[in-house]
Design goal:
By secondary structure, this protein is an alpha/beta fold. Helix content is 40%, strand content 21%. The mean pLDDT is 97. It binds NADP nicotinamide-adenine-dinucleotide phosphate.
């Protein structure tokens, strides 16, 4: 299949493109910079510019764009950048998919859609929550509407925290834990929904190639864990103690509003759509995923 991927230079996109090509798909990357390779096509989502020709005869568009949620302190300007980088890109691609008659749009979203769920289990049938990230995810998913209205099969990837050997959350935490500075954050009772990078990529390809999968899809392993559980598992994987408890007020002082929405609170999401459709996870427990990510 011919596939166009936006946001392909990131943690997930890079791995996904390699996997798609390995499986025989022909991939064109949409890039915001000057193209340097024959398989790249320039677009400017802020100006609504995309080369119409690039979508002609394409079997699917995958959109993984978005400025890093935890990369900077959430100033008003950065929150706007978080929204623009997701909503504008989705809007441009959803309209382009509609106009070109592309049959499938696989678009980013996140389990942040559910807000803080406490210890309540949520799946794709559950309502959205409160807060900046929930509103962002709702608007992000709604921005795909032009594509679904035109008859495309639209999948919204409600991705959980991706556990990868390089980058992402583990890239930030690993140096601290390796120095024996790892510890529970706040009460430690907040849930973390997570997925290993190989499962994230396999689940995107699964959604891409299964015509019966559409709408929101939770991309998370079947066993979310509490922060306290995750902290101990990290310590064991790295053979380091995790004696510390970082109080909630200190986490908030250090990273601001992001702490209240994504670090001291969380989601206990489960992958109902994927499980019902027969997707097989390679890493079902956080111990399996950490062992893969840390020993690689
Ligand atoms: N990794 C996770 O744990 C996780 C969890 C939940 C949801 N997600 C979502 O999954 C998607 C991919 O995640 P990722 O971890 O691969 O992200 P990433 O490594 O930060 O890459 C995101 C991509 O978005 C594009 N991008 C960055 N800033 C942008 C901007 N201002 N405007 C337009 N595009 C911009 C870049 O692509 P180009 O430079 O090639 O254009 C970049 O490669 C994101 O939407 C993210 O929110 C990820």
């Amino acid at each position: 299949m011919r596939i166009v991927v936006a946001g392909s230079s990131g943690l997930i996109g890079n791995e996904l493109v390699t996997s798609l090509r390995g499986d025989g798909h022909e991939v064109t990357r949409l890039v915001r910079r000057q193209p340097t390779k024959a398989d790249e096509s320039q677009w400017d989502p802020g100006r609504g510019q995309i080369d119409d020709a690039v979508l002609r005869g394409v079997g699917a568009v995958i959109n993984l764009c978005g400025a890093g949620i935890g990369d900077k302190r959430w100033s008003g300007a950065y929150k706007q950048a978080l929204r623009d980088s997701r909503l504008t890109t989705t809007d441009v691609l959803a309209h382009a998919v509609a106009e070109a008659g592309v049959p499938v749009l696989v678009n980013g979203s996140a389990v942040g859609f559910y807000g803080d769920t406490g210890d309540r289990i949520v799946d794709e049938q559950s309502p959205s929550g409160a807060g900046f990230l929930s509103a962002l995810c709702r608007d992000w998913e709604a921005a795909t509407t032009p594509a679904s209205k035109a008859g495309a099969r639209v999948v919204s990837l409600r991705t959980a925290t991706v556990l990868s050997p390089t980058g992402g959350m583990l890239g930030k935490l690993r140096p601290l834990f390796s120095l024996g500075l790892g510890g529970r954050l706040g009460s430690g009772r907040q849930y973390l929904s997570w997925i290993s990078l190989p499962d994230e990529v396999a689940a995107i390809e699964f959604a891409l190639t299964h015509d019966d999968v559409s709408g929101p899809v939770d991309l998370c392993a079947p066993e979310p864990v509490t922060n306290a559980h995750f902290t101990s598992a990290m310590g064991r994987a790295l053979h380091r103690p995790t004696p510390w408890i970082v109080p909630g007020f200190a986490v908030k002082a250090l990273i601001g509003e992001f702490a209240e929405e994504a670090v001291l609170t969380g989601q206990r999401a489960v992958p109902k759509v994927l499980t019902d459709a027969g997707f097989q996870f390679r890493h079902r427990t956080v111990e399996d995923a950490l062992s893969y990510a840390i020993t690689r």
